Each structure stands twice: as C-alpha cells, then as structure tokens.
Amino acid sequence: EYTWTLFQNWTFRHFSKSIFTRQYTWSTAPFIIFRDCIFENSKADLFAIKGGTYVFENCVFRNISGRSIKAISEVRCDFTGCLFESCQALFFYGSDASFTNCRFIQMYGKRGGAIYTAKTTLYIERSLFINCTAKFNGGALYIRDSLESFETEIKNSCFIDTNADVNGSSIYSYLSSIKLSGKNCFTSDFNQGVCNVGGTINIEETQMVDDKCRSCITMPLIDIIPIDYSPIDTNKLYQFDDLKPGSMIIVDDEEY
C-alpha cells in the first residue's frame, strides 16, 4: 500500500502474465520508479493497475502484444526518454499521463495506434510518433470524454506517417479539449490528420504540415533537470551488497 521502490537496470521479458497489478484506488501509493529498464517480447498487459504513481525514465518497451500500460482509474504515469516499439497502444482511463522525449515506433491498436485515453489528463512534449496505425480512429492518439478537468496538451511533437483506417490519421478527439502548443508537425494534411468531434482544439502556434517533418527523427532531446525520486535507504541491513554499479537484473518468464 505504501511501497516506495526503485528498479534500475532490470530487464523483463517473455511474460505471459502481468508484471504488476493493483486493484485499489484509495491512495496515490505505491510510488514506483523504473529507470533504465527493458520490457520486451511479452504477451500480457504488463502493468494492469488502479491507483498509484509510476515513473519510467529511459525505459524501452518492445514487442509487447498486450498493453504495456493498462491504467484503469486514479493512476499517474510519467514517462521521460522512453522508447515504445512494436507494441499495442497504451491505455489510460480516469488517470493522468505525461510523456516527454518519448518515441513511439510502429505501434498499433483499434482506437489510438500509440495511446488511448478517456477521462484522462494527457501531456505530451517533444515526442515522436512514427508509423503508428489504428484500425479505426486515431493513428497515434485517441482521446475521448476529456473536457474541463481532463484536458490534453501536445507540445512540439511530430506525427510521421501515422495512419487510421477511418478518421484522424494522427489524432482523433471525441468530446475532449485539446491544446496544440509550440510547433507540432505532421506529414499528412492537418484536416485529415486531426479529427475533432464535439470538443475543442486550441491551436497556439502554426502547425507544420510538410515532408520535412521526417527530419524531426534526428532532433535532439530537450534538456530536463531530473528529479531524484529514489527511495531513502531506511534499513541498512537489507541491501543488494553484491551488485556493482552498472549491474543488470533480468527476469525471464520461462512459461512464455
């Protein structure tokens, strides 16, 4: 209930069941940080969670046929410098999610190729969505029922060759409030790429629609002063004394 934990340099692979589940929402605990971790080649929803705060720094999610994150209610997730590649779209309902300096490559889903949100506050900055695909709406992002207290801001991000079979090749918004700030860019026509139904879109600056958007793949990351959320070592008797700096722990589900 009150766990405060840091996982650093762990690798999780070949999971056919969730790595972490939580079914309670009465507090913002646990507070868990994953730093420089790899999650790959798994079939399950890796994090199926209600409640709690989760921070992912410089993590890699690759080849996950389930959902990397399935946040059902009152969850806060912050992602910085993370890579998502060949995974099913992340799912957030009644939660808060932020992404900074993240890359989404060849992601896929039915609604929202990279991220699905409903009744969720979403913040995206300096992130790339590349070759993401949705079977229905929202090639990269699907946002619904997020008015007033639940709002979305997308800042200085790029949508490169994203596609939806129905509407919104990049972004699909339904009954939601979206703010496009800074200079976002799209490789598809803006009216085709951004579909808004029954909500509002606030465009602060001119949005770029150009093939030159592909050059954003090489854009440098923004400078971020990290906040050290590492747990305080309150019990000196229990430590991984044999782990040296740079060590890696690999957890492999043999039943995969």
Kindly describe this structure.
The chain is mostly beta strands. 2% of the residues lie in helices and 51% in strands. It contains 1 helix and 27 strands. The chain has one helix spanning 190-193; strands at 4-8, 10-13, 20-23, 31-35, 38-42, 47-57, 60-67, 69-80, 83-88, 90-93, 96-100, 103-105, 108-109, 115-118, 121-125, 128-130, 133-134, 141-146, 152-155, 158-160, 163-164, 171-181, 185-186, 194-197, 200-203, 208-209, 249-252. A 10-stranded parallel sheet has the order 26-23-20-16-12-9-7-5-2-27, with no helix packed on it. The longest helix is centred in the last third of the chain and has 4 residues, at 190-193. The protein is globular. It starts with a strand and ends with a strand.
Topology (SSEs and partners):
Blueprint: E1 4-8, E2 10-13, E3 20-23, E4 31-35, E5 38-42, E6 47-57, E7 60-67, E8 69-80, E9 83-88, E10 90-93, E11 96-100, E12 103-105, E13 108-109, E14 115-118, E15 121-125, E16 128-130, E17 133-134, E18 141-146, E19 152-155, E20 158-160, E21 163-164, E22 171-181, E23 185-186, H1 190-193, E24 194-197, E25 200-203, E26 208-209, E27 249-252
Parallel strand pairs: 1-4, 2-5, 2-27, 3-6, 4-6, 5-7, 6-8, 7-9, 8-10, 8-11, 9-12, 10-14, 11-15, 12-16, 13-17, 14-18, 15-19, 16-20, 17-21, 18-22, 19-22, 20-23, 22-24, 22-25, 23-26
